[in-house]
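Researcher: Quick test of sequence recovery. Tokens follow.
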């Protein structure tokens, strides 16, 4: 895809509405095009700001009673035609307003949280790396090869740990794009399963204990430690992914 095609599809891409093939092509273009990366970042910033700062309203308990009273008025048998028309118009306006408010509330209340949005991005990046046969940019089982490879490619130094002795050999690493910025993706293996470990600088200084969630048969675990946030994702058995996270913390890659 060229820049024109990518920018036309970026709004749908940011909202995760595209098919896998188109999404993969756009991601490939974004890796090599700083201009389109900037446009994508702007759109993601706007989307996140709307979700974060939009005003939320809780309908008061008396709303139902008010609507019931308005929609079922006690009207005398004989009402002047002009007044009847005014009442019909007034009721219609109230109903339309109520529907609009309800729709708006429903829309904002169903928006995913920032953490859920990131989990969806992590899963999408994981699946795309497998489907596009682009799991790694640098192939090596040595942390002393993988870690220096990121020098000059990122504005931070991702910690890399070799967990081969624990049953999770390091396969390599690659550059990826997560939460509007380039990140490090470290790739590990457990038997026939691939584990992607995304590393990005934390947005705050506090450590956060591992938190897990499930998406489409995959398990995702996130945690923050020593100024870095980590996202591990795989279709490996939950107990094995928990072991992987434990060894990451124990060996110091976190």
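Model:
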């Amino acid at each position: 895809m060229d820049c024109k095609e990518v920018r036309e599809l970026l709004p749908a891409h940011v909202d995760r509405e595209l098919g896998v093939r188109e999404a993969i092509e756009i991601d490939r273009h974004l890796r090599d095009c700083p201009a389109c990366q900037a446009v994508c970042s702007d759109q993601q910033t706007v989307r996140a700001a709307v979700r974060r700062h939009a005003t939320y309203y809780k309908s008061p308990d008396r709303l139902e009673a008010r609507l019931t009273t308005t929609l079922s008025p006690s009207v005398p048998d004989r009402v002047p035609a002009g007044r009847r028309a005014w009442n019909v118009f007034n009721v219609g306006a109230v109903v339309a307003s109520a529907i609009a408010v309800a729709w708006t509330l429903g829309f904002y209340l169903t928006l995913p949280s920032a953490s859920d949005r990131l989990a969806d991005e992590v899963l999408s990046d994981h699946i795309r790396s497998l489907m596009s046969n682009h799991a790694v940019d640098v192939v090596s089982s040595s942390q002393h090869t993988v870690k220096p490879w990121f020098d000059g490619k990122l504005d931070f130094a991702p910690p890399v740990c070799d967990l081969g002795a624990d049953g999770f050999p390091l396969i390599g690493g690659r550059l990826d794009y997560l939460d509007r910025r380039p990140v490090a993706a470290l790739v590990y293996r457990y038997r026939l399963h691939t584990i992607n470990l995304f590393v990005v600088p934390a947005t705050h200084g506090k450590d956060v204990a591992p938190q897990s969630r499930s998406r489409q048969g995959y398990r995702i675990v996130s945690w923050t430690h020593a100024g870095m946030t980590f996202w591990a994702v795989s279709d490996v058995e939950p107990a094995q992914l928990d072991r992987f996270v434990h060894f990451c913390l124990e060996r110091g890659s976190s």
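The two ends are 37 Å apart (CA to CA).
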